[in-house]
Amino acid sequence: MAQTKTYILMIAIAIVSTAASSPLQLAPAPSPAPLLCGCDQCANGSVLPPKDARIRVAAIGDSITRGHPLKGDNLQFNYPCTLERLLGPSKYVVFNFGAGGNTLSHPSPPELNASKSFWNSSQFALAKQSSPDVVLIMLGTNDAVATIWDKVGDEYTSAYADLLNVFKSMTPVPSIYAMTSPPLYNGHFAGINQTVVNHVLPGKVAEVVTANKLPPAVPVFDGMGGVNLTHHEWFFGNGSYGCHPNMAGYSALAHIVYNNTKFPSHPIDN
After folding, report:
1. H/E element holding 94?
2. Each residue's pLDDT expressed in tens, for the chain with a length of 270 residues
3. Which one, of 143, 138, 245, lies nearest residue 196 by Cα?
4. CA nearest to 66, candidates 76, 57, 56
5. Can you tell me the distance from the alpha carbon of 153 to that of 255, in angstroms, rounded to the nearest whole number?
6. Are 232 and 238 in contact (CB under 8 A)?
7. pTM to 2 decimal places
């Protein structure tokens, strides 16, 4: 019996000694799964879901489309996610191609930050691959930054036409809607020229609609307070934060889009 105990003890010592001298071998950590592109945000590293029977809506824009400053679970209250719920997620999928801080302007002249042009964004690259049935475009707030607008403001409508032509060249051609941007309640926010946002851009979008024979612009600007700034309660800090809606404001924005856009009916509804 004593010999058996001694033998077992010797085996245990040998096992401990071997473990101490050999590094612990761990299985490699699995690579994180790519984020499935959806209404909360499509960004670098996202993967578009396979095309299915749902009608595909591409929301093109900046941080207002992205849903800034919503974070985490609250991102589901941005306007593309809210719009998807209004339309019915079993029949429609709304992709959020909002790129924070991005301009509609082309990445020129060279003194501008080319990385902040929507044309150079991963969101634009994904949007071109998304096979959309409907395209919603809301860009211009960042173009209205005074140092940018002074250089490229005259090119806003031509840059808009160039973007439209990208989607018009698709087969089949999607329905395309231009959207005015929300009014700017704080005239000292991020160097954005309030006069350009509230008095110039709405007219520029109207020019784009007429020149390119688009449906009437989605009236986000007027619907969210217009020149009289009548809806402070829909913006963070009661409007003091600048251009970004709060959750109630994003809901209002989604309803404005829903009520002013003719979405194709789903085949099962016909």
Report:
1. strand 92-98
2. 544 444 444 444 443 344 444 444 444 444 455 678 999 989 888 999 999 999 999 999 999 999 999 999 999 999 999 999 999 999 999 999 999 999 999 987 665 666 799 999 999 999 999 999 999 999 999 999 999 999 989 999 999 999 999 999 999 999 999 999 999 999 888 899 999 999 999 999 999 999 999 999 999 999 999 999 999 999 998 777 778 999 999 999 999 999 999 998 866 554
3. 143
4. 76
5. 30
6. yes
7. 0.86
Residue type, 241: Y
3-state helix, strand, coil in the chain (%, to 5): 45, 10, 40
DSSP at 14? H
Beta carbons of 118 and 60 less than 8 angstroms apart: yes
Q: Which amino acid is at 23?
A: P
Q: At what angle do helices 201-211 and 156-168 cross, to 10 degrees?
A: 40
**Count of Cβ atoms closer than 10 Å to residue 255 Cβ:** 15
Tell me which residue has tokens 């979008």.
Answer: 205
Q: Which residue has the tokens 């003194």?
A: 111
Tokens matching residue 96 = 């959020």
